[in-house]
Amino acid sequence: MTCRILKLAVCALSCAFTGVFAGPGLADGAAKFVGSTTMEGEVPSDFGTYWNQITPERQCTWQAVEKTRGTFDFSECDIPYNWAKENKAIFKFHTLLWASGNPSWLRDLSAEETKDAVTAWFDAVAKRYPDLEYINVVSEAKRKHSQIGTNNKIIQALGGDNEDYKFITTAFKMARERWPQAILIYNDNNTIQWEKDEGINLINTIRKNGAPVDAYGLEGNDLIVMGSGPMKCYNPDLLKGALQDIYEKTGTPLLISEYNISTETDSTQKKCFSEHIPVFMETEYVVGVTLWGYRYKQSLLQCLTDPGISCSGIIKDGVDRPAMTWLKEYFAEHIADSKNIWFPTSDFPGDGPTAISGELHLQANTLQAYDVFDLNGNRLGRLRAYTMDEAVLTLKNTSDIKVQGIYMLRSVRNGTVRRVRIAR
Description:
Blueprint: H1 3-14, E1 33-38, H2 47-50, E2 53-56, H3 62-65, H4 75-87, E3 90-98, H5 111-128, E4 134-139, H6 154-157, H7 166-178, E5 183-188, H8 196-208, E6 215-218, E7 224-225, E8 232-233, H9 236-250, E9 254-259, H10 266-282, E10 286-291, E11 315-316, E12 319-320, H11 322-335, E13 355-356, E14 359-360, E15 368-373, E16 379-385, H12 388-397, E17 405-411, E18 417-422
Parallel strand pairs: 1-2, 1-10, 2-3, 3-4, 4-5, 5-6, 6-9, 9-10
Antiparallel strand pairs: 7-8, 11-12, 13-14, 15-16, 15-17, 17-18
Helix pairs in contact: 8-9, 10-11
């Protein structure tokens, strides 16, 4: 994948806000999102204080929505989706096909009936959410340890798997038909530290076969060193090397789709966060991070040090754990300078159409970031556009600016400044 393709994908992923300006959260103003997950019920009232991207843990899975074949109930999935719309945050749909998210009634269907059921499921999601921007299309389907075809005929229904993952390719093509502009993601676990090569092979295989995969979601669950003795964090140099190896061999932008350190030992959790988060944020081809469960005991993840609970959270009983304290300090320091976008700008490509997987997709010049200031130098937000002229028009037409007057646009890429007069 060329640098031009990477930057388009990076911009598309980091710019998928519903409004003109960047959304809420600790990472507001950064070029990368930092999000978290929710469980059933209302989104916690403090969610937007910290996160500008939201992923439902199970509310949008096939199993949760279509408990009885032919009856679709999206009420729980609507909650995080609507929250994202209302708060100008990124919503990532999780997930269309996933072994842990399959309805139990699939086991009674033939391959032909299963194909009909999968098609109906995709159609129902597309009808409910036609404007999805991020979609985990298939999760955890590499051959080693995968259970996606257990007790069902999903693999046969979608074309089989003659060592070519054809069923995954079929699923991505079905998704592209329904969401031509969405970022389509393949997501898997153990693909950073343990089964990296298997994941690389899967991505390269489905892309070779024509799967329109736009990003590779790496589940960063418990990046620790296994063994006896005290828990140790996965070495940050090894982490950076693994990410580089994955990117160079797949040419696909990366998301850290499930990061957590599930331990009750505060010092260990903080140490891992302080070593891993900077790697994610300062690696240009990582376009965003999703923490899996930010509230103690409010996630489906089991605690490594006490499997009876979920301890991945960095807020416990309303109090910040040291990892959260560090995270706040880190973002406060790095976003203090509004020019900081956490990846180099020297290798931005020129304008021109961009091909992804050999097919023209998101045909456009490269999206750029433009900061908006009032005449007192107060930064009001960030908008995305392909050129400075388009950014000017966007600013003039946005309803987010309520007061007429002179405003300043500054290109994050090269520092170019343009005065904009807005009449109301």
